[in-house]
Amino acid sequence: MFGISDYGAFVFAILLFLMIPGPGNLALITSTGKGGIRAGLAVCAGCMAADQVLMWLAVAGVAAVLTAYPAAFHAVQWIGAIYLGWIGYKLITAKPGDQPVIQIAPRHYFKQGFLITLMNPKAIVFYMAFFPLFVDPATHRGIPTFAVMAATVAVISLAYCTVVVLITKTLAERLRANPALVKWMEKTAGVFLIGFGLKLALTK
Predict the structure, then answer these.
(1) Which of 91, 93, 121 is nearest to 29 (CA)?
(2) Using an 8 Å Cβ cutoff, are 29 and 160 in contact?
(3) Does pTM top 0.85 for this prediction?
(4) What is d(CA 55, CA 12) in angstroms, rounded to the nearest whole number?
(5) Alpha carbon of 69 to those of 66, 75, 76, 113, 117: distances in Å?
(6) C-alpha distances in angstroms, 189 versus 93, 123, 134, 184?
(7) Residue 162: which residues within 8 A CB-CB, separation 6 or more?
(8) How confident is the model over 110-149, as pLDDT tens digits?
(9) HSE of 38 in the Cβ direction (CA atoms, 13 Å)?
(10) Cα–Cα–Cα angle for 50, 75, 81, nearest 5°?
(11) pLDDT band at 157, cuts 50/70/90?
(12) How confident is the model at residue 45 (pLDDT cuts 50, 70, 90)?
């Protein structure tokens, strides 16, 4: 199908990748809890946009450049780690009455979803290694094949994010009755984001 060797396996692999706990999922859940469905979908759009950028950078061979020049790879890696750590720190240290760490406006949610996803150079390397696994050399059509793969990732990501947002919105409405629990969850999210940042920084 369009030069993809096993489309069903490709779809399944994307779903597994999306369900792996990470900063993107955490940002999606946290944003939905704060700003509702509109905010959650804005983060989803930001993550999807960054994914498309990373996928096409991988197709263009940027992953090979980052691998060939470790200093450049580690520089981007540290920028991403610092960004995640900063958001996590702000969540942990936020006090009642402070301006929200994640602004309740779609443009801010989109930007944070975009940056959290984009600031992960290992994702470029992942896509560089992931796509060839499902490309059929005999029927490969070049750019059209990668375009279908990128579109598939976008459609599945949108469906997955929509389900997560709706579930989170339902739970968030119940949690609002317990402000102390909400605050604890925000601080827990901050700890996890710092953890993701440290993992990114220390990964070789």
Answers:
(1) 91
(2) no
(3) no
(4) 18
(5) 5, 10, 11, 27, 21
(6) 12, 21, 35, 9
(7) 41, 44
(8) 888 888 888 776 677 677 767 777 777 677 666 888 888 8
(9) 7
(10) 65
(11) very high
(12) very high
Q: Which residue has the tokens 């930007």?
A: 111
Which residues does residue 4 pair with via DSSP β-bridges, in sequence order?
A: 135
Amino acid at the residue 118: L
Above 80 in pLDDT, residue 53?
A: yes
Task: Give the helix ranges, DSSP H, for the chain.
Answer: 7-19, 23-59, 62-68, 70-93, 106-118, 121-133, 143-175, 179-202
pLDDT at position 133 is 73
Tokens at 87, concatenated: 């958001």
**Nearest alpha-carbon partner for 27 in 53, 54, 48:** 48
Q: Which residues contact 116 (CB under 8 A, 6 or more apart)?
A: 23, 24, 27, 46, 47, 50, 83, 84, 87
Q: Which backbone phi and psi does 4 adopt, to 5 degrees?
A: -95, 125
Are 18 and 156 in contact, with CB atoms under 8 Å apart? yes
Identify the weakest region by mean pLDDT among 117-121, 150-154, 178-182: 178-182
Q: Using an 8 Å Cβ cutoff, are 67 and 73 in contact?
A: yes
Cα–Cα distance between 111 and 60 in angstroms, integer? 24
The tokens of 51 are what? 């994914």
